[in-house]
C-alpha cells in the first residue's frame, strides 16, 4: 500500500503549483528529488501525468483525473492524521497566515507576540499581501482581511476594533490650496493614489453621504503600491491621500498630517481572522481562534 502511495505528495504539490521549483520549495526538498519522485510515479503507473518544459508544467488528461481524485482524499487523510496527533496534547506546528498590509493593529499590536508567548510550541509564518486568492488552495491556515473582502463560505471572527478611512493632507498644503468641502472637489486638488500593481486602475476613494455610499475616481498626480511612499509624499506637501486612519495615526498625532472630509467617512467593521470550516480544525489554529476570541471578550 505504501509503495502505491509513494510520490503522490510530490504529484499533488506539482499539480497545485504547476512548477517543479515551487513544489520543491513547498516540500522542502531539492528540485531534483521532486523530479525523480514524479518520474518514478509515472513509471509505476505507466502513463504520463504532465507535460513539462523549462518554463511550465501542464497536467495531461490522466494527470488531471488523478489530481481530481487524489486531492480530496489526501485532504481527508491529512485531517484525520491531524486529529489523531492532536490527541497528544498541546498545540504544535507552524501556522501560515495571509494578512492584509493595512491590518496595522493586528500586525504591530500586542496580539501576535501575546499568542506566541502563550503557545511556545506554535510558530507563525506570516505573509503580508493585498492580493486576493483562495487561502485554502495556496496552503494557508487562515487569513486576516476586512470583513467585506471575505468569502461567505469562510468562518470569520473580529480581531480589531471598528475601522475608519480618512483623507489626509499636510497643514502647509491646506494653507496653500485650501481644503475640499465635498469629495467631488477632489478633482480640483493634487492627489496621491494607491494601486496594487501597475496594470490595475488606481483605487477609487470611497465616501458616504446621507447613508449612501459613493466613490470618487481621483486622478492622482502620483500613484504607488507602497503606503510609506504615499505618507512621505503627503507629509512633504505633495497632495492629499487616502487610507486607513490607524496607518496615518502617528503622523496625525504629531501634526504632520490632518484629516479633511471627515463627515463623509463613518466608521465600519474592521478586520477579521477567517478560515475554512472543517470538521477537525488543527489544534494550532484552534488555539489562535480561542486566543482572539478571549482578547475580544
UniProtKB/TrEMBL annotation:
Keyword Transcription tagged: yes
Boundaries of every HTH lysR-type domain copy: 3-60
SUPFAM superfamilies linked: Periplasmic binding protein-like II, Winged helix' DNA-binding domain
Alphabetical keyword list: DNA-binding, Transcription, Transcription regulation
GO molecular-function term, one example from the UniProt record: DNA binding
Top-level taxon of origin: Bacteria
Record has Transmembrane helix as a keyword: no
CDD domains for the chain: PBP2_CrgA_like_5
InterPro entries: LysR-type_TF_proteobact-type, LysR_HTH_N, LysR_subst-bd, WH-like_DNA-bd_sf, WH_DNA-bd_sf
Pfam families, per database record: HTH_1, LysR_substrate
Family indicated by similarity: Belongs to the LysR transcriptional regulatory family.
Protein name: Transcriptional regulator, LysR family
Amino acid at each position: 500500500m505504501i509503495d502505491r502511495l509513494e510520490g503522490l505528495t510530490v504529484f499533488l504539490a506539482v499539480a497545485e503549483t504547476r512548477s517543479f521549483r515551487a513544489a520543491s520549495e513547498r516540500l522542502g526538498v531539492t528540485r531534483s528529488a521532486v523530479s525523480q519522485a514524479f518520474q518514478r510515479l509515472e513509471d509505476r503507473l505507466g502513463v504520463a501525468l504532465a507535460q513539462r518544459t523549462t518554463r511550465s508544467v501542464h497536467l495531461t488528461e490522466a494527470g488531471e483525473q488523478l489530481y481530481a481524485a487524489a486531492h480530496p482524499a489526501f485532504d481527508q487523510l491529512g485531517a484525520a492524521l491531524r486529529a489523531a496527533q492532536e490527541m497528544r496534547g498541546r498545540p504544535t506546528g507552524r501556522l501560515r497566515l495571509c494578512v492584509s498590509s493595512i491590518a496595522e493593529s493586528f500586525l504591530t499590536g500586542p496580539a501576535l507576540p501575546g499568542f506566541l508567548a502563550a503557545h511556545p510550541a506554535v510558530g507563525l509564518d506570516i505573509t503580508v499581501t493585498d492580493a486576493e486568492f483562495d487561502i485554502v488552495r495556496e496552503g494557508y491556515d487562515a487569513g486576516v482581511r476586512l470583513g467585506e473582502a471575505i468569502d461567505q463560505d469562510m468562518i470569520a471572527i473580529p480581531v480589531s476594533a471598528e475601522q475608519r478611512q480618512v483623507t489626509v493632507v499636510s497643514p502647509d498644503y491646506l494653507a496653500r490650496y485650501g481644503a475640499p468641502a465635498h469629495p467631488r472637489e477632489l478633482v480640483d486638488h493634487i492627489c496621491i493614489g494607491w494601486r496594487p500593481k501597475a496594470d490595475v486602475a488606481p483605487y477609487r476613494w470611497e465616501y458616504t453621504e446621507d447613508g449612501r455610499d459613493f466613490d470618487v475616481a481621483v486622478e492622482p498626480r502620483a500613484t504607488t503600491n507602497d503606503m510609506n511612499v504615499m505618507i512621505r509624499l503627503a507629509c512633504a506637501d505633495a497632495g492629499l491621500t487616502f487610507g486607513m486612519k490607524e496607518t496615518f495615526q502617528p503622523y496625525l498625532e504629531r501634526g504632520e498630517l490632518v484629516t479633511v472630509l471627515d463627515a463623509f467617512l463613518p466608521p465600519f467593521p474592521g478586520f477579521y481572522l477567517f478560515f475554512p470550516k472543517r470538521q477537525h480544525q488543527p489544534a494550532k489554529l484552534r488555539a489562535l481562534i480561542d486566543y482572539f476570541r478571549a482578547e475580544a471578550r
